[in-house]
Amino acid sequence: MFSTKNELQVLTLLLRSCPKLQRLHIKFNQDVGRSLDMLSMEGDWQYKELSTVDMLKHLRTIEINNLQGTESELDLVRYMLENANILEALLITCVKNNEETHARIIRKLLTFARASPNAKIFLS
């Protein structure tokens, strides 16, 4: 999910059409036969392409399932953390990765700025 501009546009449309959205659940598809490198190279979007105008101002909880750790997935997480002003919890479930990939995801998440001082990240 979110590997192409079309999917990004759908997300943007969804967020704009639900301005009072408080809980968002995203489930990424698992592409078992593809490597993380291929996923991160194909049609990545830049999180800066999303408009931040009040789209996430009511969002309190985000749940993301099947995170593989691709750059485009992590860019989406960064965007959410940087723009959800009252976010309370970000719950992330990763696909079964090796320890090195899991550690890389954790290191990356710790570098992301948070608009909400109360935002807590739960990673499993």
Structural description of this entry:
The protein has about 120 residues and is of the alpha/beta class. The protein is about 35% helix and about 20% strand. It has one domain. It has helices spanning about 5-15, 35-40, 70-85, 100-110, and strands at about 25, 60-65, 90-95, 120-124. Strands 1-2-3-4 form a four-stranded parallel β-sheet, with helices on one face. The model is unreliable at about 30-45 (pLDDT under 50).
User: Got a strand count?
Assistant: 4
Sheet-strand content, in percent, reads 15-25%
Distance between the termini: 19 Å
Using only C-alpha atoms, the radius of gyration works out to: 14 Å
Morphology: globular
Q: List the domain count as a whole number.
A: 1
- Structure class: alpha/beta
Mean model confidence by pLDDT: 79
Largest sheet: 4 strands, parallel
Give the helices and strands as they follow along the chain.
Answer: HEHEHEHE
pLDDT < 50 stretches? 32-45
Q: Which bin fits the share of residues in helices?
A: 25-40%
Q: Order of strands side by side in the largest beta sheet?
A: 1-2-3-4
Output the number of helix runs.
4
